Every structure is written in C-alpha cells, then in structure tokens.
Amino acid sequence: MRLPWNRREREWQDEIDSHLAMREERNRASGMAEEAARQSARRQFGSRLRAYENVRSVHISRWFDDILQDARIAARGFRKSPALAIVAVATIAVGVGASTSIFGVVDPLLFRHLPYPEDDQLVSIGYFGPVDNNEFNVVASYLDWRAQQKVFQSMTSMRAGAQCDMLAGDTPERLSCQAVESNWLRTLGMKPAIGRDFTPEDDQPRAPLVGLISYALWQRRYGGGEKVLGRSVTIDDAPVKIVGVLPKDFEMPQLGSADLLLPEQLDPARPRAANAGSFLRTFARLREGVTIGQARVAMQPIFERTADLDTPRELRKEVRLVVRSLRERQIHEVKLASWMLLGAVMALLLLVCANVANLLLARAAARRRELAVRTAIGAGRWRLVRQMLTESLVLAIAGGVAGCGAGWILLRIFVGLAPEGLLRVDRTGFDARTLLFALAASIAAAVLFGAVPALERPRAEWLAGARIAGAARTLFRRVLVAAQVAISLVLLTGASLFVRSFWKLQNEPLGFQPERLTAASFTLRRQRYQTAGMQDAFFRRLEQRLQAIPASGLFALSDSIPPRGSMGRPYSNIRIAGHPPVASGGGMVEFRWVTPGYFRAMGIPIISGRAFEETERRSGPSPVILSAAMARRMFGNENPVGRQLDLDLQDEWCPIVGVAADTRNNGLTETEPEYYRLRMDTATLPRSGVALFRTSVDPATLARFIRAEFARIDSTLPVKIESMETRVGGFREQPRFVALLVALFAAFAVLLAAVGLYGVLSFLVAQQTQEIGVRMALGARPRDIVLQVQRYAGLWTALGSLVGLAGSLAAARMVKGLLFGVSPFDPVSLIAAIGILGATAFLAAWVPSRRASRVDPMLALRYE
Amino acid sequence: MRAADTLQGALELLILKSLAHQPNHGFGITLHVQTVSDGLLRVEEGSLYPALHRMEKQKLLRGEWRKTENGRQARWYSLTPAGRKRLADVEDRWTSLAKGVQRLLRFA
To answer: Which range of residues forms the domain containing residue B59?
Structure first.
C-alpha cells in the first residue's frame, strides 16, 4: 500500500526493531554468542508481527484497514480480468448516466423547492371553467374574495396575459408586460434587487405609472447601472417611471415571462358588470397551519356568492372553485410525462443492476476455489461477504464517476432537444443534488448487484475445484435474465406506443394545409388606436397593401388561426331562427372573423354551400359558415345552408351560407365546433389580426415584403412572422421528445438484456461442454445441440416476456394520458415490442448455440 | 508480569511510574521495571508497544526519536502533564486497593 501511512508504519516497525537490537546487545554484553543473543531476544519479545499489528490497530481502525485491503484485492482482481471490469463499468455508466440526467431534468419539476420562501404556502386560486386550461378570476369576484377571506396571509393578482411595446429610439420592442397588484412581490416573499417595490399608492386607479423591470432587461438595455432608477420609458405610448429591478432569478408564479411589471390599478369603483368582464390570475399565501383543503372549504361559500353574480348565467353550472398548490399549477401539464420518464429510467437502472449482478455471478463461479481457500485458512464469512461487496462498490464508484460524465453530456443533449415548457431549462443543471443522486444510485446499484454473489456460502467441495454446477445458482441467473427480458419488454412496449402515437400525430390530418403557408400576427395598441374608426381604417389599408405584395399568392386576414383555439363563445348564446333556444350548458365553441380568401388560403374545403364573397362585405348582416362539427351539432342531418342564426343574443340574424370541413382547432388532436363570420367593412373587429399568405415566394423575401408594408402603415407596430409548419411543429415537440427518450432507453434496455442472455448462455455452454461432447459422441447432430440451447433461451425469454407483458399493460394504462390516437393496449405496439425482443434474444442465443454445436467430442471428453 | 497481568491498568501504572523521573525508551522501561521490582515484575515486551502508542494517543505520553547513550536510534517517551495527573490517580487507586487486599488477607 502506497499511502501516507507508509512512513509512520515503517517507524512502528523500526521502534520494535530497535528494542530487539538493544536486548540483543545486552545479551551479548552478558557473554552470549551472537546467534544465541539474537534468538533469545526474539524469544523474549514474542511475535513481532502481532506486536506490530497491535500497534497499527491503535492508529488505524480495523474497519478502515480492511476496507483498504478489500479495495486493493478488488482492484487487483479487476486488473486480472479487465474485460469484465470494463463491461461492468460501462454498463453502470449507462444506467447512472441516463438516470442522473433524467433526474436532473425532472428534479426542478417534481421535487425541488420553487424559488420562493416557504413555497409550500403558495396556492393558485380561481374559477375553473371551459374558458381556459387554468384557473382564472375576474376583478369583481376577486375584490370580494380578498375582502372576505380569512385563510390566507395575503392574496394577490395579475392581469391575464399581456404584451406591450416599449419605444426606445426608433425600433419598437415587444415586451411581456404584466400588470400586478402592489403586494405581488411581498406575497411571493421576494424583494426588488435594487430600487423599491410597488406601494399601495402606485396601485390606485389613475396614479402615475411606475414599473419594475426584469434583471435581464436591466442588464441588456441599461448595462446594470443604478442610473436606471427614476428613468422614464415609453410603454404603449404612455410614460412609465422605472422604480426598481426584479431579482435575478425571479420567476412569475404562472411561469410566464415578464420583462416589465406595472401596477394593476384595479378600480373597485367601476360598475360590477365591467369588473366582472376583466380577467385576472390570482394567487395567495396560506396562513400558518392552514391546509389547501381547509382553504378550499373556507373559500367555497364566498365562491358560490360571487359566481352567481359574475359568471354568465349559461356558464354558471360549468364553473367551479380551484385551490391548488403553486407547484401543481405549474407542472400539471408535464407531471405525467416527468414521472413516466423517471420511471422508465429507473427501470433501465434496475436492468443495469441485473446485468452487472449477472456478470459478477459468472465471475464468482469462476473463483469459487479462491473463496473456498480463503475460508479454509480462516477468513470469516462476513469478511468474504464484505470483500464481494467492496468489489461491487469499486465497480459502482468507477461506473458512477463515468456515469456522471455521461449524465452531464446527456443532460446537455436533452436540454437542447427539449421543448419549451417540459424542461425548465434555466433551472435544469448539474449540481450537488444531481451528483448526490448519482452517488446514491451507484451505491444502491452496488448493493443490489453485489449482494447476490456475496451471499453464496463457500463450500468445502469447491476446494477440490470440482465443476459442481450449483443448480440453485444457475437457476438464479436464469431468473435474472427473465427479469431483464421482462423489464426491457415494458420499456420496448412504451417506446413503440410513444413512437406510434407520435407518428399518428405527425400524420394526423389537420384539416388545413400548413405547407407554404406564412402567418404574420400583430395586435393593435389600445392607446394608439383609440376609436373604432382608427382601427377600421388600419385594417382596410393593411388589406389593400398586403394584397398588393408581388406574388403574395392566396391572401387572407383573420383574427386568429388554428391549431390554437380562438377566444371562444358560449354555445348557449346561439339561437336558430324558428327554433326554441338551445339548452343551456354545452361549453364553448370556436369563432373567427375571416376575409373571403380564408378558406382557400388555409386549404380548408367548403363541403356544402359556398365560401364568403367580397361583395357581401359592404352591407347587411355578416354571413356565417359553420364547421362540419358545428353543423352536425346544431342541425343533425339537416342542411343548415340558408338558415338564420343569432350569434350573440342580440337579435341580429345572420344567414348561414356554407359548411366548411373540420380543422384541428384546439391543439393538434382536438376538433371543437367552430363558426366563421365574414369580416364586414361595417363591423368593428378585434384588435388582434393574422395575415395569411399561401405562396411559393421564398419565405425570407416574403417576410421582408410583409415587414415593409406594415412599416408603411405603422412603423411602431411589431409583427411576428412564422411559417405555418413551424407553428404546427411547435405542438409536436413534447410528444417527439418523450418518444425519442423512451425509444432511447428501450434500445439500451434491449441491448442490456441481449448481453445478459448471451452471458448466461455462454456460461451454460461452457459448463456443459462435457455433457454436449458425450451427447455428440452418442450421435446427436449439431442441429440438435443448437436447438437445445435455443430452446433453453426461448424458455426463459418467453417466461420473461409473459411477466413483461403484464407489466407493459399496467404501465401503458398509467401513461394513457400521453398517448394520442393509440390505445394503451394497442396490439401493433405490443407485437412490435415482442418481435424486437424475440429477434434480439434469438441473436443473443445464436452465438453460444453455434459454439455448442461445434464442440469436438474428443476434446470435450478429455476436458479436465 | 504474571502477577500484574491479572489486574487491569497494571501495565499502564508500570509505564507511568517508570517514566516519572526521567524519559525512557521501551526497552529501558522493561529493564527499569525488572530492576526496581527485583525481578518480581516483568513487562511482556509484545504488549508494551501497543500500550505506549495508545497512551501517546491519549496524550499521557510524548514520544520522540533520539539517540541512546550507545548511539542507537530509539523512541524516547516522557510524561505529559496529563500523564503526571493520571499517574497520581492510578497510584492512589493502587495503594488503596493494595491496602484493602492486605487487610483482607490478614483477616482471613
């Protein structure tokens, strides 16, 4: 051992030697012969070795000493069979690397504290209804809740989704601006990095506007200087004084971005109806000791009262109160995917353990003699168990270190591949927690795979080196292989389900043609376009100019486009002329204002009646086109063309002129009923718009043309231009990511199972060489031998597959929510998985079985 | 040493007492005990060194390498203040124990 102990150890030895030398000297002085003097000195001293060991044990505890010795023996052993050690370390590295990187990804989502003090007290609260995927609130209700509640330390609110334009110099910049209540930061437990927080005075209606800017904006725009405080900027044409900067790692609780926070300035003096139409997101901090359940119960009566007052009658039955933890609010969309990935990677880790255990078992069989010898010369049973455990620990730590490296690389790759929203990239990283996880995973793995061979009790027969098969041991190895097969089948089934689901999603008809379609979206600012006349004038000019773009192809204007939903309308608001009112309930339907070119530009076929016409835009009620789903819902099998509808309970009757084919208008997988109205010259339209171009012009050139035309009308208006394919692709990112990862894990898993099967069969063949030789000598054909081995492999693969099948079905049911267009019990996926596994198992069995068939009977019989 | 062997702490007492007047090395301690006890007591040499190291670790002794009068390198031990205190304690305990045993023997 070359360790710092070295010099000290030599000194202990020297001290004893010096004692002996002095005694010897004295003996000689009293007249003994040289040799006799030395002998006598030694005799009198007793065992030098024992004395030395005892001195040593004063300084180094036995325990540590033994561990070092074990590690030394282990390292020596692995140097002797480096192939085994390398395979084992590489296998562990794969398992630890994959699981560590996935842990790094899901840790901030599932386990880590949110970046607020006492984060478990924070809740999201509000109405939940068919209007939005998340709970929301309205000003009128919120003011009542805030005044009447007793379960929260404080409640706070922000206006739902807002963007603003900051003008600095000539280029307008579109920022995400959030209007928040003055106690926003205080409720979250945060303070501005510099400057001051909002005060209740800032939050008074019509108070001079002040703003808090994000740390990133501060650095980017103002270079991080203190001088930014007190500076005035123009936001949506109004002056805003910057009074503070948000903390560096500040996160909005709904996870939206925020470049700028403005005071919300709720006005309780406005009429209730006006405040009931103004949407908010509301959050709260629970009082000490109050649970979410208690808060929900306490808020229920308050909710019932305000819901009666503030929700449209037809929606009243469909809204309910939601109070849930902030974490739940943040991750509910990715929770299932996160748990699923963690589960998959843990299964992979388990597989790795099984594989390494198998390797070590093979090795243990080969060194039984060594163990038996050590037992015979007095090594305790516990000492041998510890020796084996140390060996697996050495492997595990080497594998763990390599796995950390692999995990780091994998994590970089995942972060690069992952869609926005699934990973919180900013918070995903390799830190102490991830490393601790890697360490824990390695050690747990070591104990798992080390315990198996360690618990074998050495037997005296092994001393003889007899090739005693150890039936129980090989049985155990076969069970281990079957378990590996089972786990990889589960992963394979998962992978084929996700791949098939993604493939379906990719090939799902959208109901419109995204190819060569470009969308330019914009929103007019309220401050700049204050009157309806100004808005109408803008849209008229825009349409003329954009249509004049050379080779603009098919052009249309709408206020929103699929696959995202529009701001829907309650179904129950619609009346059919000559029919009793539609029954209340029925949720929301999609609705868009479009120009006549919309259907051709989007590639949506008109399946009955006709499209809108330019001439209809000048006067009269705006005609309506229904989607097929809408027509079916309202009219069943009747032809709706020619009927009249009142769409907003305003006695304005509009003729239905046609029925358009359905589109995916609520994400890529769902079709909601939808109706379209013609953009009339006479009507005032929403301030948001999307211009559509279907053209073969190069997209970059087209974008330049579009920007130029917009700038000619209003140079301060930001426009977002993207191809429809990009837009649609964005919806596929998460399923693609999930499918890719699971497929990757499954590939690893199959590889590991194949290696395991190969190992066991090779071992069995080697062990039965003699028996095979006898059989061949008695006339067995090579084919019989191949079949024998293959049958063997087949049996254990089949047993594993059966267990794996049961596991697959159970696992598939749990991930149902992540699948699209594929049943969790999809036979195609199951058969594909079993097929891949079977083929791999056959290949893994092929080599050992061929080897068995080439056994030379003469050699085999002389063996040993 | 046979006599002392039966009584716990005897070796420690012998070592401490041997070093009370002057520092010594292990072999010197063996000789000293033998001489002073007129050969009645003998230190078992094999157990001497573990005991010395343990006591050094407990800061009762301080050890350093020095030359003997014969010019040989040896490890010399001396009492630390803690060692002196321990010696006083152990000596007291032994004296009272010895007295008790003596009385018991006389009574019987």
So the answer is: 2-107
DSSP annotation of A572: G
CA atoms within 13 A on the CB side of A802: 6
Enter the DSSP assignment of A101: H
Query: What are the residue ranges spanned by the domains of chain A?
Result: 1-60, 130-318, 335-507+733-862, 517-727
Is A422 within 8 Å of A731 (Cβ atoms)? Answer: no
What are phi and psi for residue A326, nearest 5 degrees? -60, -35
Q: Which chain B residues have a beta carbon less than 8 Å from that of A57?
A: 50
Q: CATH number of the domain at B31, please.
A: 1.10.10.10
8 Å CB contact between A791 and A764: no
Cβ atoms of B49 and A15 closer than 8 Å: yes
Distance CA A573, CA A566 (A): 16
Q: Which residues of B touch A15 (CB under 8 A)?
A: 26, 49, 74-75
Decide if A789 contacts A850 (C-beta within 8 A): no
Where are any strands of DSSP class E within A230-312?
A: 232-235, 238-245, 260-263, 279-286
pLDDT tens per residue across span A118-135: 999 999 999 987 667 788
Q: What are the strands, taking DSSP E only, across A249-316?
A: 260-263, 279-286
Q: A426 falls in which pLDDT band (50, 70, 90)?
A: low
All residue ranges of chain B with pLDDT < 50 are 1-8
3-class DSSP state of A575:
strand
Number of compact structural domains in chain B: 1
DSSP H/E element including A199: none
Average pLDDT, chain A: 84
Question: Which residues of chain A neighbour B73 with C-beta distances below 8 Å?
Answer: 14, 18
DSSP A207-244: PPPEEEE-HHHHHHHHTT-GGGTT-EEEETTEEEEEEE
**Do residues A793 and A844 lie in contact, with contact meaning Cβ atoms separated by under 8 Å?**
yes
Closest residue to A25, CB basis, from B53, B57, B70: B70
Q: Which residues of A touch B65 (CB under 8 A)?
A: 11
Using CA coordinates, name the residue in chain B closest to A41: B45
The answer to whether the Cβ–Cβ distance between A14 and B73 falls below 8 Å is: yes
**Touching B: A residues 45-104, CB under 8 Å:** 45-48, 50-51, 54-55, 57-59
pLDDT in tens, A623-646: 999 999 999 888 888 888 989 888
Q: What is the ipTM of this complex?
A: 0.88
Share of chain A above pLDDT 70, in %: 92
pTM of the model: 0.70
Q: In the structure, how many helices (H) and strands (E) does chain A have? A: 26, 24
The count of other CB atoms within 10 Å of the CB of residue A757 is 27
Spatial separation of the C-alpha atoms in residues A808 and A825, rounded to whole Å: 9
